[in-house]
Design brief:
single chain; 139 residues; alpha+beta; two-stranded antiparallel sheet; 4 strands; flagellum
Length: 139
């Protein structure tokens, strides 16, 4: 029975982690076309790093919670674009844009969304199992 309750903990931690991932992807998409005067000022896309948490009360490791270990900047270099009439253009006429692939970010968003939905379904199924278990005890 305690393993069933640990599944709630694991799924809840995964929901939180995927929510942060979705927000990070949204931020990347919102900044995908921003321009900056220098490479240093250019927005860098963010990536979420996950880490499982060892649960000492679950020696079989049937359900290991997950957490966001870090949110890191992409090492990709900004993309210089020659746009001399842009208000952010430097003295050479270049603006710098983040190296963000909208297609990759959308795929990342779909993956996070599906993972979120799967964890909601796990929680619903576990709840149903617990309810049925309680009903068996009442008969």
């Amino acid at each position: 029975m305690s393993n069933l309750f640990s599944i709630f903990n694991t799924s809840a931690s995964a929901l939180t982690a995927q929510s942060i991932r979705l927000n990070t992807v949204a931020s990347n998409l919102a900044n995908a076309s921003t321009a900056a005067k220098t490479p240093e000022e250019t927005y860098k896309s963010k990536q979420v790093l996950f880490q499982t948490i060892l649960d000492r009360e679950d020696p079989d490791r049937a359900a290991m919670p997950v957490r966001v270990a870090d949110i890191v900047d992409s090492p990709a270099l900004p993309i210089p674009t020659y746009e001399p009439n842009h208000p952010q253009a430097n003295d050479d006429g270049y603006v710098f844009r983040p190296a963000i692939s909208v297609v990759e970010e959308m795929a990342n968003m779909m993956s996070a969304s599906r993972s979120y939905e799967a964890n909601v379904e796990v929680m619903n199924t576990t709840r149903q199992l617990l309810e049925r278990t309680l009903r068996v005890g009442q008969s």
